[in-house]
Automatic annotation (TrEMBL):
Its main location: membrane. Keywords: Copper, Electron transport, Heme, Iron, Membrane, Metal-binding, Respiratory chain, Translocase, Transmembrane, Transmembrane helix, Transport. GO terms for biological process: ATP synthesis coupled electron transport. One of its GO terms (cellular component) is membrane. Belongs to the cytochrome c oxidase subunit 2 family. One of its GO terms (molecular function) is heme binding. It comes from the Bacteria. It is an enzyme of class 7 (translocase). This is cytochrome-c oxidase.
């Protein structure tokens, strides 16, 4: 089996688990196919016309218990495989421990990524080994699909959604990154590399990247240039909901609902401000859909998350 599972490199424990599941299911299905086909062929030959095999002895009738037993055993076997596969699928959605969050933006035809310190890459993704990585992915135009065969992970990236994908790579090396959703004429060129590095090599790599602005710092500038501060800032004349400490806190809406100001809520409030209006405020904010790119939205969100500390420092 180990020979088989190395047919394509596996760079994570989940990849090896996926292979085990795949080959187990293939082996089991293959065994059943061979068993059924073998019996059909065997009996066809043995009881062919004019063969002298005895037809006198009828087989004994099967016991009801036997029928019930093998039916239940088969059902149980396949439900077990279903459970095994689902557990893996759900496991893939839940990051283990405190993950390192990296933002990924897909666009025709490249993968852009941004590390927590603001280091940016295009069509390359450097990650430390043995550490939970959480990719927060957005698309700027059409549906793309983030596919790393060596990690056995594939996630569609749909415009207007934030998709999460987590993994822990445990084998340093360079692995292929592909787009697995036809996304336009240069779809086949939308490829890249995932470079898994030892923790210290990753730290070293980070330190050699341009000390780019942090995402939150970019967001802060956008907050001004897009005009957000004109209404949401300290000395604004227009009355708009204050944004200090807004991230993660409950917000009372005009229709009586109370929602949590998470990424999705803040994102919607920027793109569709008339949808969830905060109680006590007029729906006067214009939509920023089409005016702010995915990368800039991520920067704004990063800024809003950091805002409480900044306000505290300013005071
Ligand atoms: Cu694509």
């Amino acid at each position: 089996m180990s020979g088989l599972s190395s047919f394509i490199s596996a760079a994570s424990e989940r990849a090896r688990q996926t292979d085990l599941l795949f080959f187990s299911a293939t082996a089991l299905s293959g065994f059943i196919v061979l068993l059924v086909a073998g019996l059909i062929i065997g009996f066809s030959i043995r009881y062919r016309k004019n063969s002298n095999a005895s037809r006198a002895e009828l087989p004994p009738p099967l016991l009801r218990e036997f029928e019930t037993g093998w039916t239940l055993a088969t059902v149980l076997l396949f439900v077990t495989i279903f459970g095994w596969a689902s557990a893996q699928g759900f496991g893939a959605m839940t990051p283990a421990g405190e993950p390192l969050q990296i933002n990924v933006v897909a666009k025709q035809w490249m993968w852009k990524s941004e590390h927590p310190g603001g280091e940016r890459e295009i069509n390359e993704l450097h990650v430390p080994a043995d550490r939970a990585i959480l990719l927060s992915m957005n698309s700027q135009d059409v549906i793309h699909s983030f596919f790393v065969p060596a990690l056995r992970i594939k996630q569609d990236v749909v415009p207007g959604h934030t998709e999460a994908l987590s993994f822990i790579a445990d084998k340093p090396g360079t692995y292929a990154l592909l787009c697995a959703e036809y996304c336009g004429t240069q779809h086949s060129k939308m490829t890249g590399k995932v470079i898994v590095m030892e923790e210290e090599d990753y730290a070293d790599w980070l330190s050699h990247q341009e000390a780019d602005n942090s995402l939150a710092a970019q967001g802060e500038r956008l907050f001004t240039t897009l005009g957000c501060s004109g209404c949401h800032g300290h000395s604004a004349n227009v009355r708009a909901p204050p944004l200090e400490n807004v991230y993660g806190s409950p917000v009372a809406l005009a229709d009586g609902r109370i929602v949590e100001a998470d990424d999705a809520y803040l994102r919607d409030s920027i793109l569709q401000p008339k949808r969830d209006v905060v109680a006590g405020f007029k729906p006067i904010m214009p939509s920023f859909a089409g005016r702010v790119s995915e990368a800039n939205l991520l920067a704004l969100l990063a800024y809003l998350k950091k805002k409480p500390q900044q306000e505290a420092r300013d005071d």
